[in-house]
Write a structure and sequence with these properties.
The protein has a single domain (3-200), classed as Sandwich (Immunoglobulin-like). Helix content is 6%, strand content 40%. The protein has helices at 66-71, 139-144; strands at residues 3-8, 37-43, 47-55, 75-81, 89-94, 100-106, 110-112, 121-127, 130-138, 154-162, 165-166, 172-173, 176-178, 196-200. By secondary structure, it is mainly beta.
């Protein structure tokens, strides 16, 4: 299982230069170049802070209700689970305008769209052929989901990107990028093999 070290930063001081950067995102189900994608995370003992930086020369932003605006747009995604049973797991999908779709799932693909997740504080920016999504989530939330367990500093997490593009006829071509190749026949983030481990360094249980 792939691992990512989430370094500790001082409380209230998010110093991104302290964070290891994940760059090896790709299209597991397609043979085409992947736009540059960077992900990094830090924790301060109270919250986990994260940042996505995505190159995107062809930004797709959908309209409609809150759910449609997210699911039809370019976006980044974080999934959290207590264990490989994915029963349940918790998902946040975030589009470049700041829209967040939070839902809970159970294996396999049983989604609770009415789930009321915690407030996820995100800040987004778009410009110069790229977009950035930054956010934070309290560690107490992860503990409440049993994702972060007493005495442990490991979190089972999925880190993904939905990269859409416009076809010449104006329709939208979806593309699916991920940190961990799930080794599935078809695009699917909602399987145990799409998750890796975050190790929250310096976290006292």
């Amino acid at each position: 299982m792939r691992r990512y070290a989430v370094h500790r930063c001082p409380p209230g001081i998010v110093s991104w230069e302290l964070a290891p950067v994940l760059r090896d995102f790709g299209f597991p189900w397609e043979n085409r170049p992947a736009p540059a994608t960077e992900f990094c995370a830090l924790h301060d003992g109270t919250q986990v802070h994260f940042r996505f930086d995505c190159a995107d020369e062809d930004l797709v932003l959908a309209e409609g209700d809150a759910r449609e605006r997210v699911l039809g747009s370019d976006r980044v995604e974080l999934f959290f689970a207590a264990d490989a049973r994915l029963d349940p797991y918790h998902c946040f999908e975030m589009e470049p305008r700041g829209g967040v779709l939070a839902y809970r799932g159970r294996f396999y693909r049983r989604f609770d769209w009415n789930w009321q997740g915690p407030d996820l504080h995100v800040q987004c920016s778009v410009g110069d052929g790229r977009y950035q999504v930054c956010g934070r989530l309290p560690l107490e939330v992860l503990r409440g989901w049993d994702v972060l367990r007493p005495g442990s500093n490991e979190v089972l997490a999925g880190v993904h990107r939905a990269e859409f593009s416009h076809r010449p006829d104006g329709s939208v071509q979806p593309g699916w990028m991920t940190w961990v190749d799930p080794q599935t026949e078809r695009p699917d983030f909602h399987v145990p093999s799409a998750f890796g481990l975050w190790v929250l360094e310096g976290l006292e249980g």
